[in-house]
Amino acid sequence: MIMNKIIRLAVLLLCFCSCAIDNDAIYYPVGNVDVENGGPALEDGKGELVARSYNTEDYVLDTVAQYPGNPTLGKLTFMVNLKNQLAGQEANGFNGIGTSGLTMSLGYKDGNYPEESQVPVYASPDVTTAYAVKLRLKGELTLSGDDWMIDFVYVQLASLFQPYPPASFPEVFMCKGGEQSFACFDSFRRTWTFDIEYNRSNLFFSQLYFNLFVNLAGQKREDRIRLRIDKESFFEIYKLEE
After folding, report:
1. CA–CA separation, 105 vs 99, rounded Å?
2. For 14-74, where are the E strands, in sequence order?
3. Which residues, 6 or more positions from 127, have their beta carbon under 8 angstroms from its beta carbon?
4. Which of 154, 111, 148, 149 shows the shortest CA–CA distance to 222?
5. Mean pLDDT of all residues in 123-152
6. What CATH architecture does domain 24-76+84-137+179-191+198-241 belong to?
7. CA distance 64 to 225
8. Are 79 and 163 in contact (CB under 8 A)?
9. Are strands 75-81 and 122-123 parallel, antiparallel or unpaired?
10. Which of 125-147 are b and which e, b meaning 16 or more Cβ less than 10 Å from the residue's Cβ?
11. 98: helix, coil or strand?
12. What is the DSSP letter of 226?
């Protein structure tokens, strides 16, 4: 048993070390990220609610994350298009309602996710309009086996599709990742538990993206991923008064 654990750890370390020289690597070692851009929090009565999605009960994305046709074994990266199940109020161009879906990337450093996954959660009819966004994302991410480990998780709200967690870009309104700013990791349960909130005004965008990115490391070509979105999660977009 001890020898098997030592061998497994050695293979995992070999995977990490090989990433630096592999041109097809989709692994990036990143630290904690905590970015919040925009104006002050939205005051009550200062904005018109134009789109809202929410849940009446927890829902779960329980699926198999399959390693893509990339020769670099040991790194597994996917993104989740975050959505809530119901609409309190929706507008044309609002794509935040439905079930969250998982999408694989063939090359994380290039961000070449399929075009159908790069769909904004909202498209603004007027780029001169000032908006406010209020959201809460609460839940947990769980791996089923012990052949993979969660290397990094981050959630991002941006006006451009950003597949890599930036330290500071004007297009990024919120980016939270790492154990300190995003979630707590329970190594025994192999679960990340998270609860983040965002409330900012004076945001200008033609498109708005809201995604969760997860980077795994391990030895198998697939693993079962379970993402639970708590019923207390919600997403709201407000048009600010002139």
Report:
1. 19
2. 33-36, 47-54, 59-66
3. 204, 205, 206
4. 148
5. 86
6. Sandwich (2.60)
7. 6
8. yes
9. unpaired
10. eeeeebbbbbbbbbbbbbbeeee
11. coil
12. E
pTM confidence score: 0.82
CB atoms within 10 A of CB 181: 16
Alpha-carbon distance values, 140 to 80, 189, 191, 220, 225 (Å)? 13, 11, 7, 22, 11
Within 10 Å of residue 18's Cβ, how many Cβ atoms? 15
Measured CA to CA, the distance from residue 97 to residue 121 in angstroms comes to 9
The 10s digit of each residue's pLDDT in 41-87 is 999 888 999 999 999 999 998 887 776 655 455 666 778 889 999 99
**DSSP alpha helices (H): ranges in the chain?**
2-19, 178-181
CA distance 176 to 36: 8
Name residue, tokens 């690597």.
25
CA distance linking residue 186 with residue 192, whole number of Å: 6
Contacts of 23 (CB under 8 A, 6+ apart): none
Residue 241 backbone dihedrals phi, psi, to 5 degrees:
-75, 145
SS3 234: strand
Overall average pLDDT of the 160-178 stretch: 84
Q: Residue 9's pLDDT is what?
A: 41
Q: Dig out the tokens for 61 from the structure.
A: 């994305």
* Integer Rg of the chain from CA: 19
Distance between CA atoms of residues 223 and 195, nearest Å: 24
Least confident range of 102-116, 156-170, 180-194? 102-116
